[in-house]
Amino acid sequence: MFVRLSAAVAAFSLLAGGAFAQQAAKPTDPQIAHIAYTAGVIDVTAGKQAISKSKNKAVVAFAEDMVRDHDAVNKQALDLVKKLKVTPEDNDTSKSLSKQAADKQTELSKLSGAAYDKAYIANEVAYHKTVNNALETTLIPSANNAELKELLQTGLKIFQGHQKHAEHVATELK
Amino acid sequence: MRRRIWFAALTAILMLSLCPAQAETIRVVIEKLGYEPATINAKVGDTVEWENRDVIAHTATVRGDWDVMLPAKTTASFVLKQSGDVEYYCRFHPNMTARIAIAPR
């Protein structure tokens, strides 16, 4: 089970990593805003699914943190694009992220109990790792606007915190 | 006269040494996932006041001991009850850590 789970996580990381790699070398600010927002929405959706499916206190608490934080960050992102008069632009990375996330949701929806909890948390670790890597190597260095760059940098710190938190919950589930 | 001045001075010193210094309030600001200052020196009875300027909630948590909830854009405080060197962190973002050196009063 664990091997299968790890393989699934590794496959997802590669896929999600691939989503970011597919993007043209340097995304524009409107594309970056769209990718960052999409990445947040994906985790809110995953969190809401976890809140309704899981009965594990630590897992539900973690999911609630994800919904609350990503909603707050996305609200800030929306305020910023409004202020900067930037219209987020859909792109291949966003599309591919959404597609993979929807597939993952379907996969997770078929699980229940401890199997679901483990798969959800393992995916949260992998997902945050991928997003953090994309922020560090592509999105932050590519951002032109200073305020957008700053928001992404704060976002990175928040998501690094989520990754650590998810890793902690994962060890509790073992 | 001189003796009286000496007596007054002695009384003052005695009173100062008997009355402990007033407890202080130490302020820590949380901004962009950092506790600032990250290290503070305090005494038992002092209050630590955290001002969370972030749009997300944080906590100031000592593992196995106290836990202070710090909702977004709020201020919350805690009175230090025990001496010692403690490390606290945010339960929601465990990459946030800070220290308090608490001296006995």
Structure report:
The complex is a heterodimer of chains A (174) and B (105). Chain A has 174 residues and is mostly helical. Chain A has a single domain (2-16, 28-173), classed as Ferritin. Helix content of chain A is 86%, strand content 0%. With 105 residues, chain B is an alpha/beta fold. Chain B is built from 1 helix and 9 strands, in the order H-E-E-E-E-E-E-E-E-E. Chain B has one helix at 2-18; strands spanning 25-31, 34-36, 39-43, 47-52, 58-61, 67-70, 75-79, 84-89, 97-103. A 4-stranded mixed β-sheet of chain B has the order 2-1-4-7, with no helix packed on it. A 3-stranded mixed β-sheet of chain B has the order 3-9-8, with no helix packed on it. In chain B, strands 5-6 form a two-stranded antiparallel sheet. Chain B is elongated. The two termini of chain B are 37 Å apart. At the A-B interface, helix 3 and helix 6 of A face loops of B.
Structural class of chain B comes to alpha/beta
Helix proportion of residues of chain B, in percent?
A: 10-25%
| Rounded Rg of chain A | 16 Å
Query: Looking at this structure, what is the CATH superfamily of chain A?
Result: Ferritin, core subunit, four-helix bundle
Describe the structure using short key phrases.
heterodimer, A: 174 residues, mainly alpha, Ferritin, 86% helix, B: 105 residues, four-stranded mixed β-sheet, three-stranded mixed β-sheet, 45% strand, elongated
Write the layout of secondary structure elements.
The complex is a heterodimer of chains A (174) and B (105).
Chain A (H helix, E strand, L loop, with lengths): L1 H21 L6 H25 L3 H28 L7 H18 L3 H30 L3 H28 L1
Helix pairs in contact in A: 1-4, 1-5, 2-3, 2-4, 2-5, 3-6, 5-6
Chain B lengths: L1 H17 L6 E7 L2 E3 L2 E5 L3 E6 L5 E4 L5 E4 L4 E5 L4 E6 L7 E7 L2
Parallel strand pairs in B: 1-4, 3-9
Antiparallel strand pairs in B: 1-2, 4-7, 5-6, 8-9
Question: What is this structure, in a nutshell?
Answer:
The complex is a heterodimer of chains A (174) and B (105). Chain A is mostly helical and 174 residues long.
